[in-house]
């Protein structure tokens, strides 16, 4: 992929991703994660994020359960994303520079907005405040 995050044109043109499609996205919390997610969203697709330490079996389950049409993985992770793509007979695209089965929950923009608003209310956050997160950008399982 020559090191650049996916763009709307590349996702839809090279990989046939259409609005509403789900893309299984496996990457660590690096700056490119944000760009890649925006590329997925700009294509009108849904980013289904997964832990970089998930097994092939877990990723195949997540991808199948979500109805993923593409597996997008980060270089240097385990071979599990590519193996899951093979198992699901899906294209695999590699980015260059609990108990039981994992469960997914669809988050809407309204969900995220309400969560942020409540957080700001509880912690008395104002427009003058700044925040940094050290939390993973992907789902935990």
Q: Estimate what percentage of residues fall within beta strands.
A: 5-15%
Largest sheet geometry: 4 strands, parallel
Binned, the helix content reads 25-40%
What is the CATH domain class? Answer: Alpha Beta
Q: Any idea how many domains?
A: 1
Spatial strand sequence of the major β-sheet: 2-1-3-4
What order do the helices and strands follow?
HEHEHEHEH
Q: How does the overall form come out from the CA principal axes?
A: globular
**Uncertain stretches:** none
The whole-number mean of residue pLDDT values reads: 76
What is the third-level CATH name, the topology? Answer: Rossmann fold
Tell me the structural class. alpha/beta
Distance between the termini: 26 Å
Q: What value does the Rg take, in angstroms?
A: 16 Å
Count of helical stretches: 5
Tell me what the CATH architecture is: 3-Layer(aba) Sandwich
């Amino acid at each position: 992929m020559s090191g650049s995050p996916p763009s709307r044109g590349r996702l839809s043109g090279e990989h046939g991703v259409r609005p509403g499609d789900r893309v299984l996205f496996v990457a660590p919390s690096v700056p490119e994660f944000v760009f890649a997610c925006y590329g997925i969203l700009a294509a009108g697709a849904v980013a289904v994020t997964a832990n970089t330490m998930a097994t092939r079996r877990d990723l195949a389950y997540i991808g199948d359960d979500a109805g993923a049409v593409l597996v997008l993985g980060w270089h240097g992770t385990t071979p599990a994303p590519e193996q899951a793509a093979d198992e699901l007979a899906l294209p695999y695209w590699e980015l260059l520079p609990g108990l039981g089965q994992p469960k997914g929950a669809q988050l809407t923009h309204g969900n995220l907005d309400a969560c942020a608003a409540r957080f700001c209310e509880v912690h008395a956050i104002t427009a003058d405040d700044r925040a940094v997160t050290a939390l993973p950008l992907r789902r935990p399982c």
